[in-house]
Design goal:
alpha+beta; FAD/NAD(P)-binding domain; Alpha-Beta Plaits; Glutaredoxin; eight-stranded mixed sheet; four-stranded antiparallel sheet; 31% helix
């Protein structure tokens, strides 16, 4: 795919449709490189309900790399990194290769607010109550038409506008996959039954009904999940009476549920965009992929899309990108999304109460008693096991590097500005004329797994070795020509 040459000067470098977690993080990543960003959010106010979402290990590492993790920890609750795959709960295996080996539960509106504040603090413009209604692109940029008729001009547009993405539809990008076969109701509400009686009833049913639970999330407030009677319109949230009916059908009681904080339904549809880029327009997050929420991967997948795309798009816009750099966004992220779709398909099968899936679930539960199997599935769900294809080389090539102790403190603190980083244990390597975009840390005592490591701005290992000539080749591959 040919990369367009971005040379004109519209009002903005990038317009982002959607200021959810993906759009807000992408805006911040672009602003680290002085890209002029406008984020358009169709909603005028935050959602009236407070949904708790979970940040997995890789997303927590991303937040640590940009100095955001402490802010998030102040608003969230940690729980162990276990029970992610099809809700099969096994002890946390030893040797999880992360300084953040836990799940952080955080209210989604809080997460969005913190990420939006981060982007705005870096200089991104955010406009609420602005919905994209049309787009046209040409050799010089993209014209975006809003629902009120206003027209805006940018060099690029990124659709981070969710599963029903207007940008994707306007592009005509196919979204093949499978429609929902089953629906599940989910919400948070008060209950009128004593906690010990709830626990006893739920424990008996959970042995076979894995799409059912009541879990306390606050004083007299429970998270409630129960299978729906059929497949409904997920654009319309269910009412409390539908929850009561389904709880009575499944558990023989409605547990006295009342006063909902939020109610929703989700299905098991799986869809993947045929392309992530058409010329100057790109897709990220749910606009590019949807799948069941089993394992809690969706929001995390979108954040990681943004983290992969931001520095690449910024390099392209600043004229510092190798000709194929922007193509690596789709080449790297689309296979990751396809794998997530497959593992959620597998998990949904394992949640079935039918005898066959129950037998497979039992066998997998036995296999997960092996630490290697348990660790593999946790790394799959939490995205710490991803290895991008950078060509032949050691197993570490293409993987993210965990946070390490280095001479200047913690490794991830050195990545806050979104630049590349050369970790040099030899004392004789150099980044030369790439020093305007790649930092260099000489640390002869560092506990590095190799003499020299080149990290991309997203923390993935782009080169391993001690030869300056091969290092220069990889600096050109990922960061453009020297002195550019």
């Amino acid at each position: 795919m040919d990369s367009p040459q971005f040379t004109s000067e519209p009002s903005f470098d990038v317009i982002i449709a959607g200021c959810g977690p993906t759009g807000a993080l992408l805006a911040a990543e672009l602003r680290l490189h002085a890209v002029r960003v406008l984020v358009l959010e169709k909603e005028t106010e935050p959602a009236p309900y407070v949904r708790i979402v979970g940040l997995h290990m890789r997303s927590l590492e991303i937040m640590a790399m940009r100095g955001l993790l402490d802010r998030l920890l102040a608003h969230g609750r940690r729980r162990p990194a276990r029970g992610f795959f099809a809700a099969i709960d096994k002890p946390v295996p030893p040797g999880l290769d992360s300084a953040h080996a836990y799940l952080l539960g955080i209210p989604q509106p809080v997460l969005v607010r913190l990420l939006e504040e981060h982007a705005a603090g870096l200089g991104a413009q955010v406009r609420h109550g602005c919905a994209v209604a049309g787009l046209e692109q040409d050799d010089d940029g993209v014209t975006v038409e809003l629902a009120d008729g206003e027209r805006l001009r940018a060099r690029c547009l990124v659709g981070c506008d969710g599963a029903r993405s207007t940008v994707r539809k306007l592009l005509g990008v196919g979204f093949p996959g499978e429609p929902s076969r089953t629906d599940t109701l989910m919400g948070e509400m008060a209950v009128g039954m004593p906690p010990e009686e709830i626990a006893a009833r739920v424990a008996g049913l959970r042995e076979t009904l894995h799409r059912f639970w009541l879990r306390p999330v606050g004083p007299e407030t429970y998270s409630v999940v129960v299978p729906a009677a059929g497949v409904g319109d997920r654009a319309e949230p269910p009412g409390i009476e539908e929850f009561r009916q389904q709880l009575r059908a499944v558990a023989g009681t409605d547990f006295g549920v009342h006063s909902p904080r939020w109610l929703s339904r989700f299905g098991d549809a799986t869809r993947l965009a045929e392309r992530y880029r058409v010329g100057r327009v790109l897709l990220a997050g749910d606009a590019a992929h949807i799948h069941p929420p089993t394992g809690g991967q969706g929001l995390n997948l979108g954040l990681q899309d943004a983290f992969n795309l931001g520095w690449k798009l910024a390099a392209q816009l600043r004229g510092r990108a190798p000709v194929t750099l922007l193509d690596t966004y789709e080449a790297e992220r689309r296979p990751v999304a396809a794998d997530v779709l497959d593992n959620t398909r597998a998990q949904m099968e394992l949640l079935s109460p039918e005898p066959g899936p129950r037998a497979v679930r039992g066998l997998l539960a036995e296999l997960m008693d092996l630490d290697e199997v348990n660790r593999h599935l946790i790394e799959k769900i939490t995205a710490t096991g991803i290895r991008y294809d950078f060509g032949e080389g050691p197993d570490l090539l293409g993987r993210r590097l965990p946070d390490l102790d280095v001479r200047q403190g913690r490794l991830y603190d050195l990545l806050r500005h979104g630049r590349g980083l050369l970790l040099d244990r030899t004392g004789r390597l150099t980044v030369g004329d790439w020093s305007d975009r790649v930092d260099h840390l000489r640390d002869l005592s560092a506990a590095l797994p190799a003499p020299g490591l080149l990290l991309r701005p997203d923390g993935h290992v782009a080169w391993i070795g001690d030869d300056q000539r091969s290092l220069d080749a990889q600096l050109s591959r990922w960061f453009g020509e020297p002195g550019q």
